[in-house]
Amino acid sequence: MGWRHRRGEDEFTRANSAVRYLLVEASGLLSSECTKQAEELLRVGEPDLALEFMAWDLAPHADELPEHLVRFIKEEVGDAGPMPPAFEA
């Protein structure tokens, strides 16, 4: 399956929650454009794309993120799409 496959309802709900969690926890590091785009992607039912977009936006700040957020991004985005190199190590 491609990375844009439709998740089951439980996974879809989890992805939505993951995006909202990341919007709050990384709010000081996310660009305003990324925040707007992630909210729009949630609105149209594409939380996987929102997670991927947010991970790429946060990649330059990977060293500034608490370890629990780095783990969270690796776990959630790893299921959603391509992982930014900053989070692959």
Largest sheet: none
Shape field:
globular
How large, in whole angstroms, is the Cα Rg? 12 Å
**N/C terminus separation:** 25 Å
What is the total tally of β strands?
Answer: 0
Number of helices in the DSSP assignment: 4
- Element pattern in H and E: HHHH
Output mean pLDDT: 85
Assign a percent range to the helix content.
Answer: 55-70%
Q: What's the number of structural domains? A: 1
Poorly predicted regions = 1-6
Explain what this protein looks like in three dimensions.
This protein has 89 residues and is mainly α. It has one domain. The chain is 62% helix and 0% strand. It has helices at 9-25, 32-43, 47-58, 67-80. The longest helix has 17 residues, at 9-25. It is globular and about 35 Å long. It starts with 8 loop residues before the first helix and ends in a 9-residue tail after the last helix. The relative contact order is 0.17.
Blueprint of the fold:
Blueprint: H1 9-25, H2 32-43, H3 47-58, H4 67-80
